[in-house]
Each structure stands twice: as structure tokens, then as C-alpha cells.
Amino acid sequence: MKGDKFRRELSLMPETATRHGYTPPMAKKKHNKTPSNTIAENRRARHDYALEDRFEAGLVLEGWEVKSMRAGMAQLTDTYVHVRDGEAWLINAHITPLASASTHIVADPMRIRKMLLHAKEIAKIFQSISAKGYTAVALRLYWKDNKVKCELALAKGKQEHDKRKSIAERDWNRQKQRVLRTDNR
Question: Which of 51, 55, 88, 108 has the lowest tally of Cβ within 10 angstroms?
Fold first, then answer.
């Protein structure tokens, strides 16, 4: 019992508590959000294209690119996928090299990167791109375990009236949600 009284007294006086080797327990920090695994997102693609089939692809990257992605230095604006000789390539993806990048390698931020897909997926993408007027667009880069993955989609370009229609539809859905929330209160 004498020790409990001593600890209570020490918890009231933090400067003496550390002198005697006892530190009172601290409250844990609350994390409201789980950390996102998304590295970069191509929001423009969702606006400019009607997205259909989606695929997940791995990327062949160099070491400095992975470090830059960990720092969030990647952009997917105007990025697309090109299929050539049975292989898929990511074009126009911009990964800014860090200042502390390796000195013995010349870092090219707009380098064409190879995508890792199954042969059937590559064939489906190639068939759609060449015949139906689709394009393959990179939607986002994200971490899956310790690997970088790229979500890509087959997309058809929207015309201006289609874009206005989708914006109006989105606004209408927001208004419906607001009305439902106020009615439920």
C-alpha cells in the first residue's frame, strides 16, 4: 500500500517522477483516419472518360521511383497505357525524383514504365483499344502490401454534353441525400 501512495504522489509531480525512475502512463493518441494507401489519383480521367472495365497491374520501377512514391511525388495527369509487342507500357506518368536520389543514375521523371499484367488481360486491352475506339487510362497508383499497383480502365471519351449530364446527375444525387438527411432528423 505504501508503494501505491508513492506512485500517486509521483503522478502529481512529473519532475520528481522521472528522478525516481517512474514515469506515469500517457494517454494514447487517437487516430481518426486510417492512412490511405493511394499514392496518386487521376481525377481528370473520371471526368473526361466513361470508364468501363478495370484492371490491376504491377509496375516495373527503379529504386529512386519507389522512394519518390513513398514521399508522394507522383502524378498521373494525362497518363495512358499503350500495348506494343504483347506488353503494356505506362506513358506520361510523372514521378519527380527526390533531391537525395542516387547520383550514379540519371533520373528521368517521364520514363516509360512497363506494366505487369496477365496475357489475357493484355489481349483484352489491345483488342478494345484497336477495334472499339477505347483507350486505356491509368486511374490511380496505390500500395498493396509493399508493392506499387496501378489501377487502369478501358475508357471511352465523353463529349461535352455527356460531361454536363454527369455533373447534373451528381448534383441531383447530392440534393436527394440532403433532403433524405433533413427528413430523417
Answer: 108
> What does the block give as the cell for 131?
477495334
Which is more confidently placed, 183 or 176? Answer: 176
pLDDT tens digits, 99-130: 876 677 788 889 999 999 999 999 999 988 88
| 96, part of any domain | yes
Rounded CA separation 39/32 (Å): 20
Helix (H, G, I), strand (E, B), or coil: what is residue 19?
helix
Q: Is 121 left (phi over 0), alpha (psi -120 to 50) or beta?
A: alpha
Q: Give the pLDDT score at 60.
A: 93
Based on its alpha-carbon atoms, the radius of gyration of the chain, rounded to whole angstroms, reads: 26
**What per-residue confidence (pLDDT) applies to 180?**
83
Looking at this protein, which amino acid is placed at residue 113? R
What is the amino acid identity at position 145? D
Closest CA to 80 of 133, 160, 154: 154
Per the CB < 8 A criterion, the answer to whether 59 and 114 are in contact is yes
For residue 19, being part of any structural domain is answered with no
User: How many domains in the chain?
Assistant: 1
Mean pLDDT of the chain: 81
| Cell 489475357 found at | 120
Return the H-helix or E-strand segment holding 96.
none
Domain that holds residue 147: 38-159
Pinpoint the alpha helices (H) of 21-159.
Answer: 43-48, 63-70, 119-131
